[in-house]
Design goal:
The chain is of the alpha+beta class. It has 3 domains: 85 residues, Conserved hypothetical protein from pyrococcus furiosus pfu- 392566-001, ParB domain (Alpha-Beta Complex), CATH 3.90.1530; 56 residues, Arc Repressor Mutant, subunit A; 123 residues, no CATH class. It has a 4-stranded mixed beta sheet with strand order 1-4-2-3. A two-stranded antiparallel sheet has the order 5-6.
């Protein structure tokens, strides 16, 4: 073995950062700091004999952010420093997009069950939520919600095979769900219209039939109008999904801050994101579906 290391504990502030390092962009340190607070860290920071950093800059900065004063480091000969830095950063294999989704879902599931008390500040504790997973992964809560739903979808295996990215899989899932909901709406609407037509043929002057479900009385005509309204909404959302796909392919960015635009993350005047509105409409449709099935 070419590299012989020794381990020692040093003051974190004594580690020197050399210029012209291979990795210049450190990314989001906040989420890494949170991960280290939750799990600790397995890979030691690597330095030379004079405590010049070789590998582990992001871990070093995250530990500083957490207030750590003393750290264990692996010490290597100075002449091997350039080689080790490149090997650590270049030889690492990135996860595929679906491995990332599956990993994220496993982390969220584990922490939701076991991290029942999460330190918010020095005095406040709370249950682990999707917002905490978003903070851990450096994403928005809406995005985390979408990805977790993607992993739980009955179409997951199909999407793994046919898609090349998380974004593509999310858009495809929206299309599939919209198509399924639209088809169900058409079938239920047709069934109700046929039922009403049959009733008209039997009795010309009949009061609108009412059926009691979940403690409420719903007029059939009102029920039918709600289904038609959902169908109109679906047409709008399908068009929006198409626009969103094209915007992402064009890498449409905000002219103010340069961030890529996802239309489903945008807020309506009510304060809800478009994704939240779509999900609520789907929930209402599922509720109507259950009512008609139990009739």
């Amino acid at each position: 073995m070419l590299i012989k290391t020794k381990t020692m504990k040093v003051n974190i502030d004594s580690i020197k950062i050399p210029e012209n390092r291979v990795r210049e962009d450190l990314g989001n340190i906040t989420n890494l700091a949170l991960a280290l607070r939750l799990f600790g860290w397995l890979d030691k920071i690597v330095v030379t004999e004079d405590l010049t950093l070789v590998a582990g800059r992001r871990r070093l900065e995250a530990l500083k952010k957490n207030g750590v004063k003393m750290v264990d480091v692996d010490v290597i000969p100075k002449e091997l420093a350039p080689v080790i830095e490149v090997i650590e950063n270049v030889m690492r294999k990135e996860l595929t997009w679906y491995e990332y989704v599956e990993g994220l879902a496993k982390v969220h599931e584990y922490l939701s069950k076991h991290a029942t008390k999460v330190l918010v500040d020095k005095k406040t504790w709370k249950q682990w939520t999707q917002a905490d997973t978003a903070r851990l992964f450096g994403k928005t809560p809406v995005w985390i919600s979408e990805v977790l739903k993607l992993r739980k979808s009955k179409h997951w295996e199909e999407l793994k095979e046919s898609c090349n990215s998380i974004e593509e899989a999310l858009e495809k899932l929206r299309e599939l769900e919209d198509q399924e909901t639209s088809k169900e709406v058409e079938e239920i609407t047709k069934e109700i219209e046929e039922s009403e037509e049959s009733e008209k043929e039997g009795k010309e002057h009949r009061q609108p039939e009412k059926t009691e479900k979940t403690g409420k009385e719903i007029d059939k005509r009102e029920f039918l109008e709600k289904l038609k309204q959902i169908q109109r909404y679906l047409v709008i959302f399908q068009a929006l999904s198409t626009v969103n796909i094209r915007a992402k392919k064009m890498k449409l960015k905000c002219p103010f801050d340069g961030q890529e635009i996802d239309f489903y993350d945008l807020k309506a005047p009510c304060g809800h994101s478009l994704l939240e509105i779509v999900e609520e409409i789907r929930r209402q449709f599922e509720e109507l579906t259950r009512m008609i099935e139990s009739d």
